[in-house]
Amino acid sequence: MAHADEGWGRRWLPNVGLIVTRDSANEGNTRGTGIGLEGTYTYFIGSLAPVPDSEGMGMYQSAFRTALDRLLTVEAGFFAQAELANAFGSPDSIQPRFSIGGQAGGFLGVELGFDYRAPGNGWAGTGSFHVAPFLSLGAFSVALRIPTVSFKFDGSDRAPFDEELTVVVKIAPLPLLAMILDWDTVFNPESGDDR
């Protein structure tokens, strides 16, 4: 969930975030709280916000227009996540989990991809399809991972995949840096080269 970041309008933008998860498993399967990193590489297609005549726009109108533009930005791209599930449990209960896939949306969107949970805690190495609708406010996003069909890679029991609430906070809001370093190009994409 590093999603509708502080940039828009026909450009690729990378980002990195801290990911924290909490699963809803029953007591027998609980993995507790997970922690890890998420990276995204996103193409901002453009904003659905209507383009007003900027002549005579006051400071507050301009700020509102900028916020509306960011909120209604449409994006598509890729994500990768690496997480230690049950990171605060006993050492033998910690399980590495990896996810990779594509994402699309903006303020609201969805991630689709593949999850792999490494063997551990008595479970087999287990794969699953990754489905996670998200709500993004730029430097902060929330997603709900929904359990889907899972499959194991050895003879042990499959690890459970349960609903998980996922929160991402950007470590380095790279699009914001781009905005500071190249203000005019960000607000007026036609005035500079696409990135």
- The helix count comes to 3
- Strand fraction equals over 45%
Rounded to an integer, what's the Rg over CA atoms?
19 Å
List low-pLDDT spans: 4-8, 191-195
Here the CATH topology equals: Porin
What is the general shape?
elongated
Distance separating the two termini:
22 Å
Would you tell me the structural class of the helices and strands? mainly beta
State the domain count. Answer: 1
Largest sheet: 8 strands, antiparallel, barrel
Classify the helix fraction into a percent range.
10-25%
Question: Strand arrangement, largest sheet?
Answer: 1-2-3-4-5-6-7-9
CATH class categorisation: Mainly Beta
What's the architecture in CATH terms? Beta Barrel
Order of helices and strands: EEHEEEEEEEHH
Q: How many beta-strand segments?
A: 9
Mean pLDDT value? 75
Summarize the structure.
With 195 residues, the protein is mainly beta. The chain is built from three helices and nine strands; from the N terminus they run ββαβββββββαα.
Overview of the molecule:
- The protein is mostly beta strands and 195 residues long.
- The protein contains 3 helices and 9 strands, in the order ββαβββββββαα.
- An 8-stranded antiparallel beta barrel has the order 1-2-3-4-5-6-7-9.
- Residues 4-8 and 191-195 have low confidence and may be disordered.
Give the key terms:
13% helix; 8-stranded antiparallel β-barrel; disordered C terminus; 195 residues; Porin; 3 helices; mainly beta; 9 strands
Spell out the blueprint of helices and strands.
Blueprint: E1 11-23, E2 33-47, H1 59-71, E3 73-85, E4 95-105, E5 108-117, E6 126-136, E7 140-145, E8 150-152, E9 164-172, H2 174-181, H3 183-187
Antiparallel strand pairs: 1-2, 1-9, 2-3, 3-4, 4-5, 5-6, 6-7, 6-8, 7-9
